[in-house]
Amino acid sequence: MKKVIVTGACGFIGTCLCRRLFEAGCRVTGIDNLSRAGSEINAEELKRSRQFTFVKADLSDTKAALRVFEEIGPADAVFHFAGQVAVTTSYVNRLNDFRGNAATGFNVIESVKRFSPGAYCVYASTNKVFGHIVVEKPVGLERPLDPCTPYGVSKAVGELYFTEYGRPPLGLSTCCFRQSCIYGHHQFGVEDQGWVAWFAIANLLGVPVTIYGDGKQVRDLLYIEDLVDLYLEAWEKRLTGVYPVGGGLPNAISLMEGIELIRTLTGRDYRELRKEPSRPGDQPYFVADLAWAKPAGLTWSPRTGCREGLGKMISWIRENEAGLRKLHRLA
């Protein structure tokens, strides 16, 4: 039975990966500080599996991180998702953002080096490490690292450490994915992060939605199960390097198009659509060029279109409406 460590295990992506790892017969140790809204709900679900061991820890604390990884011992794979996740928050609390992403990223990969050097390691990076993109064309491997927000910088620092530890002098097996807009079930989206889920949640719960900017910002949506497919194939083939990841051009939509599609799928009007000026660091356009996948030896490509994926996400929101109302204090 394979042994896997997942940091940020009770967040959106971590939870969905853990569920698939259970199906694959893996034993999973999930590490989380449960700071993210909704993470405790996901934690309770994961704890129902006998294949899951939960560790509550703050991985920005170096001593705590080293202790946890030493106690867990060698693993076959480590997936690092723990961190501060919002651009807006990174401007308000820069120290917390640094600790959550830069310090945590270093602590995790250093812990792997010391206590699990044979593990395959994945770092979930972000499209924000590319900075303010002004050219409206897909972003590929040639685009340089150029972060321009505190969040982009802190995530880039963690990514650079994972990349450096993957070079011959330190000798780990590391892969970083610069991820675009990921959405799907188990996502407790809020206004500051997870906009697709937030728009759907707000629509179904009757909460006003604020559009920052002109609503023409474009993102390529990637359904969570397609992302997990990528993680698992990358592990299987021990893919290394740094790659842009999203739904690609076939799944590129603007914010306003996303709002209208959600309205169509739910059959409900929004309670209110408000407009505010754009926020710092909001890229007007990001679409990942996925042409790297086949040359890298992968069979992976996104399989779930926006309409299908949003439909599945909306079904999950409806099934969990009571919990979401309580979380948003609407019960």
Head-to-tail CA distance between termini: 42 Å
The averaged pLDDT comes out at 96
**Cα gyration radius (Å):** 19 Å
Order of helices and strands: EHEHEHEHHEHEEHEEHEEHEEHH
> From the helix content, strand content and strand pairing, which structural class follows?
alpha/beta
Percentage of residues in helical conformation: 40-55%
The total strand number stands at 13
Describe this structure in words.
This protein is an alpha/beta fold and 331 residues long. The chain is 40% helix and 18% strand. Helix 1 links the parallel strand 1 and strand 2. The model has no long low-confidence stretch (mean pLDDT 96). A 7-stranded parallel sheet has the order 3-2-1-4-5-6-10, sandwiched between helices. Strands 7, 9, 11 and 13 form a 4-stranded mixed sheet that branches. The protein has a two-stranded parallel ribbon with strand order 8-12.
Question: Can you summarize this structure?
Answer:
It is built from 11 helices and 13 strands.
